[in-house]
Target: Nickel pincer cofactor biosynthesis protein LarB
Amino acid sequence: MDLKKILEDVKNNNIDIEYALDKLKNLPYEDLGYANIDHHRQLRNGYPEVIYCEGKSDEQILGIIEKMKEKDSNILGTRCRKETFDKIKKIYNNAEYEELSKILKIKNHDIVNIGKGKILVLTGGTSDIPVADEAYYTAKFLGNDVERIYDVGVAGIHRLLSRRHILEEARVIVAVAGMEGALPSVVGGLVDVPIIAVPTSVGYGANFGGVSALLTMLNSCASGISVVNIDNGFGAGYLAATINKLK
Model:
């Protein structure tokens, strides 16, 4: 069933709107040769497609942005190089860049807050901030009230405990940590909300590029913790936003 026939059938009352929306969820994607842009992802998943910039050329990224802008999509890019952003900014004046997290943002329409509560992003140390900021800006761009508390790791646990009232106000918590990755387990013993653990590659040799933190988080004795991949702040922010919009 093509788009024109769906619209004609709705107009002539041959099908109802709910049926039409169900059919539209599978339409369409746009083939650019190097990318298939899923313009209807927001209909299915609630959020538009996000551009993973790493490994793509500047020309490919600009091509994807152009086609998404034609559909009036808000555009979020992750792992965007500063040099790439500089080229984008010359074409799109409303483009914004978060240098630490390498997040690219282009708002083509207002972002509506659809979150039901607050998302809280924590880090064990200052070195974890680039990954945490990726989670923060992702969740915020997807329409959430997001707060950050950084450098509250287990080496000085009183720094976290002094902010316990903020932890208790959150609906979802993203806990970002490298080294041994103990922060999510500690937080898990203090709150009754979902915790998304993010291991980072921060640490010395036996950290194995974040594997030690990943294993600690996967083996946490605290309940209610999910774990994303090493340095995957985007995945954590996206998951937190998905949880926070549930009724």
Summary: The mean pLDDT is 91.
